[in-house]
Amino acid sequence: MPEPGKKSGSAFSKKPRSAEVAAGGSAVFEAETERAGVKVRWQRGGSDISVGDKYRLVAEGTRHTLTVQDVGPADQGFYAVIAGSSKVKFDLKVTEAEKPELAPTQAPSPAPAPAPAEAPGSLAPASELEGSSPSPTGPSSEPSTGPVPGSSGTPDDPIGLFVTRPQDGEVTAGGSITFSARVAGASLLKPPVVKWFKGKWMDLSSKAGQHLQLHDSYDRASKVYLFELHLTDTQPASAGGYRCEVSTKDKFDSCNFSLTVHEAIGHSDLDLRSAFRRSSLSGGGRRISDGHEDAGTLDFSSLLKKRDSFRISRDSKLEAQAEEDVWEILRQAPPSEYERIAFQHGVTDLRGMLKRLKGMKHEERKSTAFQRKLEPAYQVSKGHKIRLSVELADPDAEVKWLKNGQEIHMSGSKYIFESIGNKRTLTISQCSLADDAAYQCVVGGEKCSTELFVKEPPVLITRPLEDQLVMVGQRVEFECEVSEEGAQVKWLKDGVELTREETFKYRFKKDGRRHHLIINEATLEDAGHYALRTSGGQALAELIVQEKKLEVYQSIADLTVSAKDQAVFKCEVSDENVRGTWLKNGRELVPDSRIKVSHIGRVHKLTIDDVTPADEADYSFVPEGFACNLSAKLHFMEVKIDFVPRQEPPKIHLDCLGCASDTIVVVAGNKLRLDVPISGDPAPTVIWQKSTQGSAAAVGPASDGPEDTGANEEWVFDKKLLCETEGRVRVETTKDRSIFTLEGAEKEDEGVYTVTVKNPVGEDQVNLTVKVIDVPDAPAAPKISNVGEDSCTVQWEPPAYDGGQPVLGYILERKKKKSYRWMRLNFDLLRDLSLEARRMIEGVPYEMRVYAVNAVGMSRPSPASLPFMPIAPPSEPTHLAIEDVSDTTVSLKWRPPERVGAGGLDGYSVEYCQEGCSEWMAALQGLTERTAMLVKDLPTGARLLFRVRAHNVAGPGGAVTTKEPVTVQEILQRPRLQLPRHLRQTIQKKVGEPVNLLIPFQGKPRPQVTWTKEGLPLAGEEVSIRNSPTDTILFIRSARRAHSGTYQVTVRIESMEAKATLLLQIVDKPSTPQDIRVTEAWGFNVALEWKPPQDDGNTEIWGYTVQKADKKTMEWFTVLEHYRRLHCVVPELIVGNGYYFRVFSHNMVGPSDKAATTKEPVFIPRPGTTYQPPIYKALDFSEAPSFTRPLVNRSVIAGYNAVLCCAVRGSPKPKISWLKNGLDLGEDARFRMFCKQGVLTLEIRKPCPFDGGVYVCRATNLQGEAQSECRLEVRVP
């Protein structure tokens, strides 16, 4: 027996629900009344709605419908439906229409006609609600926004890396969805790194599997990378926020998007419970109160019997587990999920559990303090501001904001509290990681909570690291600048993170946005690649540590000086910090007032003034810490002049007198001093001449001899004509010597200098050869060739001018293209004109330059080479195999190479050659991107070898060759059918389902496939056959009973054939059982009998379901289920009731669509007399509204609250509305209206003169309408 339902006073059996409709669509609201003929009114904003172009009203019996056509933003608001004394409110929300250019490339299926608005958000298309496939409007394999990359409308993102960002998506539980991101790859040297996250930190790459897959591809035509996140069998737990991050070597970008998962809903009425709710009220009517829509009990047994009529997705979270608490699951689940939970957990007494649960479970009531609460979570970027807003029911209520349980107080501009009407807002400015917390808004005894997530932007590298070259023991400091102060970074050496050791070998220093890594004393073990890694990228640099080695740029030279002259020994070494010791004949030389030692930069000098014969010795310079010794000899030249009588002819006292010309070598830029002793009486005249290419330029007074004006030019220099400091070239002549001084020797000063002395007695002449040597000229820019993964070959030409000294070798330097620091690649001089440079970073552009070195020193650097990038060709492909061979073709397949490198992969080249021949022929022009190829037009019977190479910008990689020659000849293979195991038994399909039977086969050449049914060839358009070289497919789009039968497939090659037989059985629901009748009725029992259905649905009948229904309520209850016999007895019937009986038949498909029902009710007689209750006439207590106390005129003072009171009566309870000067005051927050026990009060808050006027109180019910008015005067004090 059904339990009696609770009586209620509502006139509606089904109420309209709030709805959300896109602009331009139609909204349909439906209501059902308890009885027909009830007058129903529809209202919007308190005003009745009439039929017109905008609104359409339909009344059919108890069903009443309101249709709002061409919905726009102006139609948004609250609506109401009134029937008798019952009023139900609902609202309509209007959303923006979806823009046409944002639609996916595949057109969605036509939308069904708008269904009655049952619940908010119930406007999804039927395809989404069924859960059979994802909605075409949601994200799919193609993104929903933006044109296809590569087209003329490709969006240009000048800042980020995304061409197309992932968009928000919606999917039905159990469906599939794909999010896509496109990244421009035209300017990228390496493929970008993409990571997918769910929530704040969960990396989805670790969750990849059957239900979550990550795919990526590259379009070479548009140079766009495509990354996809594919979710299958989505569950409610899949909903939430997601993030996609893409990073390259020096760029970073991210994008947030969200996924909404809707519950799967059946085809019929969305409220499943209303279709199966019992009612025990007499008269066939059922009344439900406004506040208790779920009153009455639910027939969950009927729900379970009809569960096949609804397609409800399975939630993996609710699968039965031994440790799960069913009570807790039922407590938290919505009522619509009860029957599914009972089915999954094997609950047999669900109604009993729900009765107990009703006493345990507290129904959530609508908040009395909040009209709109905080969202569950908010997210904000670091440094931005966030607003948390709530709407209160009482505008005067006091609000407190809490952060992690602690009250927030106003402090500066960090927290801003706003109060506008009933809206309260907390604004947090300049959000930092400290603001990542849980926040609460407390109003009285109620509170609402949320969680704020502060997203820290990625830290980018603004100035990268520089490569460094140091010597052992030197201090190393790497410096890098990032985009944010105080950012957390990691230092790594060769991929291993560096930490502060006990020896303090590494020191980390932060200076604002700059980060330093300091190595106090470098060792050879410290060489390697150092990296600084941040959340947005990393910077890489190389440290090269070399052994200490001193280079001598200029050695000391032997000197020959005269008495009282100055001797200067000078040398230049490579390290300006090196000190040294000067030795004289192996003993340390102690400086004094005459002997001076100086050290300026890389130059070391020993100066000896007023040279004496004792200074003639071997002098050496020994650098400290290096095993080298620079030696030179000082020769003292003693001039002996014998006494000569008067009239002595002039004489030049030099060792080269009368010999071939001597050569004097001077370094360019140094001072040349030629001190020539002379004698003669009277004092001779000295003439200095320089010969250049056969001409002589004279310096001094003209000689008495003949003069060649075309070749010689003379200038006279003596103490009278030229002072010592005048000019770069000067001559000083005394009685016994002539000194020629040349300041800053240049290459043009090189030549043969002739010294001529004359007096009246005679003349003497000596030729001195001066050679000026210099550093070589800068070589030409080096050329780069043979670029590999981390190496290249550098070649250069000798300098055009070697500086007068043979080139001893070369020094090579390199740098990164964007850097300013050059690194030396060799410390020992290179004798050859080429070098193979190694230890470079793949994918980084470099430049090279070279120095030439001779005995004088090092030349200026050559111009930098053209930039080049170390990129290695890919390795050889793997697993090359022969897939198939015919008379003229060979099918190859292989796998990509194990190492691709920074240059990527452009494609593959396929070549072949005859066995025993070395000439390879290309199988196709250009490259192929596929890892398989069919080589055509080959000579039949030829034995060929095949090889495959991978190519990139660096060129072809290694080749993989077939191990054995392949004979180009068709191999005859007997036909054979490989029938899958599940097709070897009877194949059962339901009516309307697709049939797709795939049968693989073998055989060469390609066999001929034939299908027959019952021995006859297949005919008709409904059955299609698709054949390929390796399989055949029988496809039926929508199966019918006529498709059942025996199918045979035959594959034939010449006279050989193979056959297979398949038995296809198309099943359907059975028909209704036949001839149901009541054979006997006794006591509380009834005996039934029926016959099997005429159509068993082409499968076995599993049983029958017997149901009974009371004549009064006509609610059906299951008596027997899965009953196998054709007769039964229904016991435990109630005396005095009449019953109908019906029987359903069941098979593997389900129950029959209709039931066999008894035509007449079976009455269970009650023994004894029958009581006839008296009939009473129903009384009508309805009354039109009337004011028992009307409003009275009032005069109040401005600024003080005023109250207008009156009393009214009426049945049913009238609706009260207040008007001022004919305008409704219902939405004005300055007026408060109260109604208690028929006493009506209107409170006017702090009135002003503008509030004066005529106020009307109007009462309305179904019986009529009444109103009372008064005049209010507001006086200004």
Please tell me about this protein's structure:
The chain is mainly beta. Helices cover 3% and strands 45% of the residues. The chain has 6 helices and 95 strands. The strands form 22 sheets. The chain has a 6-stranded mixed sheet with strand order 47-55-54-49-50-51, with no helix packed on it. Strands 2-9-8-4-5 form a 5-stranded mixed sheet, with no helix packed on it. A 5-stranded mixed sheet has the order 11-18-17-13-14. β35 and β36 (537-546) form a beta hairpin. It is elongated. The two termini are 74 Å apart. Residues 1-8, 99-159, 266-323, 657-661 and 693-725 have low confidence and may be disordered. It comes from Echinops telfairi (Lesser hedgehog tenrec). This is Myosin-binding protein C, cardiac-type isoform X1.
List the helices and strands and how they pair.
Blueprint: E1 12-14, E2 19-22, E3 27-33, E4 40-44, E5 47-48, E6 55-60, E7 63-68, E8 77-83, E9 86-95, H1 126-130, E10 162-164, E11 169-172, E12 177-184, E13 193-198, E14 202-203, E15 212-219, E16 224-231, E17 240-247, E18 252-262, H2 272-275, H3 300-305, H4 326-332, H5 338-345, H6 350-360, E19 370-372, E20 377-381, E21 386-392, E22 399-403, E23 406-407, E24 415-420, E25 423-428, E26 438-443, E27 446-455, E28 461-463, E29 468-471, E30 476-482, E31 490-493, E32 496-497, E33 506-511, E34 514-519, E35 528-534, E36 537-546, E37 552-554, E38 559-562, E39 567-573, E40 580-584, E41 587-588, E42 595-600, E43 603-608, E44 618-623, E45 630-637, E46 651-652, E47 662-667, E48 672-679, E49 685-692, E50 695-699, E51 712-713, E52 729-733, E53 737-742, E54 751-759, E55 762-773, E56 783-785, E57 792-795, E58 807-816, E59 823-824, E60 834-837, E61 846-854, E62 878-885, E63 890-895, E64 907-914, E65 921-922, E66 932-935, E67 943-952, E68 955-961, E69 966-967, E70 973-977, E71 987-990, E72 995-1004, E73 1008-1013, E74 1016-1017, ...
Parallel strand pairs: 2-9, 11-18, 20-27, 29-36, 38-45, 47-55, 50-51, 71-78, 88-95
Antiparallel strand pairs: 1-3, 3-7, 4-5, 4-8, 6-7, 8-9, 10-12, 12-16, 13-14, 13-17, 15-16, 17-18, 19-21, 21-25, 22-23, 22-26, 24-25, 26-27, 28-30, 30-34, 31-32, 31-35, 33-34, 35-36, 37-39, 39-43, 40-41, 40-44, 42-43, 44-45, 46-48, 48-53, 49-50, 49-54, 52-53, 54-55, 56-57, 57-60, 58-59, 58-61, ...
